[in-house]
Amino acid sequence: MRVVVIGAGVTGLAVAWKLASDHEVVILERQSSIGGIATSFRHLNFTLDSGPHKVYSLVPGVLDEMKALLGDSAIAIPKTSGAIVAGKRLDYPVKFSDLILKLSPLLSLRLGFGYGVALLSSFFRRRKPVSYADYFRQGFGVPAYNLVFRPIAEKSFGNPEQLDAELARKRVPYTGVVKMLKSMFFRDKRLSAEHFYYPRQGFVEMSNILLNNVIKDKGKIIFDAEVKGFEAEGSRISAVKFLHGGRMKRIAADFVVSSMPVTVLPAMFNAPPDVMSAASQLKYRSLLLVYILVNKPKVMKDVWTFVADRSFVFQRVSEQKNFSPELGPEGQTVLVAEVMCTANDDAWNSPDDYLYRRVIDDLVKAKFISPGEGLPFHVLRLKDVYPVYAIGYREKLAKVLSFTDQFENFITIGRLGLFNYNNTDHCIDMAIWASKHIRGKKPLSEWIETRKRFDEYVIVD
Ligand SMILES: Cc1cc2nc3c(=O)[nH]c(=O)nc-3n(C[C@H](O)[C@H](O)[C@H](O)COP(=O)(O)OP(=O)(O)OC[C@H]3O[C@@H](n4cnc5c(N)ncnc54)[C@H](O)[C@@H]3O)c2cc1C
Questions:
Q1: How far is the CA of 431 from the centre of ligand 1 (A)?
Q2: pTM (2 decimals)?
């Protein structure tokens, strides 16, 4: 039985890894490298990740799978994250002592009053939060929403009143002041890992190991193979069509697993206009990664620091060598600033020089570095990386999936493939379930049930 897997990101590679021992597996990857969104690359004397990536999971069994996969290359790193709030660096998640000692007494009082009002209102409220804004206002009070959650959302995704509450739940999977206060004294495993793991040579090592395992089991990968469409016979897909070396080719398939963006599928299947219209309304946000070289051994105490304030261009800053000292030479370090945008907007089209200037100025303003310390190093533009959970996205996604679900030997999984704002552990979990489904020759109705569990994933910072 031949399984054609579309995409060599973590999801595609993991499903191929799980199936290659007893299936003929062929991976089609549009690019000439693996890892997808979670890749690494060499630039001068540094190995750089496509944004800071850690290995961690709350999904039962998945962290053990990932650690076993990485073997000796996994290093454990104490997780120290920060957040710059009202100009002050606080530990993340926020600690009670930080609120008292580091923010002004007036601000602490306002936050406390806001929590109190939110707590009292929760006794009378019946309606579940609809928007991201509702979720945080109801859970933590208006002042905390305005100070932290609103600016982060505005910088990352746009108007928080138009974003689904699901986005908020994924990032902060609890509401309620009591739990919030508890988390200030005790570390909550659901919110923050104490340690995380990292492949010492760069995050792409995870994908390299997955691919090596696939090849060991006689699986194949075809690079520079861009899938363009499918051939179907009734309710089954019989072949995948792809562009390779300037020619259209086809490969016969008994089963197809796709991890390419779900939004491109309707056009590939010549879907009816209502399905095409639903897909066109599902949007992804893009990411600019601006890498800044500093001629110092180390800059940050944190692996990453969130920066809520809207006046800063980035929403997070990380330091590559805080993940593994082996990623660059002694005496030098690289800071990575994340700037979310929409492909082809002004930020996306800004020249690199402009981005370096903005980021370096803001790194100085936020006191990460002193004037003159930051040097332009590299800019990476990643087009479709964040599914936008705009209110109404569920109905549109359901429409697209109910169309693709008519093919009994086709499933779409992964971050872009299921429009699921997830991490690599979730990709591996999806791949495990998909491989069980295919190996067990189960009916599609069972897969549709299985898929519901993927809605429960949360992101652990
Ligand atoms: C800044 C940032 C930080 C993150 N931090 C973490 C973290 O700390 N920990 C963590 O676990 N996760 C993290 N993630 C999430 C993680 O990167 C993703 O969940 C994961 O990489 C998604 O993998 P995927 O295989 O589903 O999708 P992708 O990586 O998008 O892979 C899809 C693949 O399909 C290929 N493809 C697309 N279209 C076609 C086509 N037509 N034909 C052939 N191939 C095609 C693409 O080239 C790509 O290789 C982070 C993400 C970002 C952006």
A1: 13
A2: 0.95
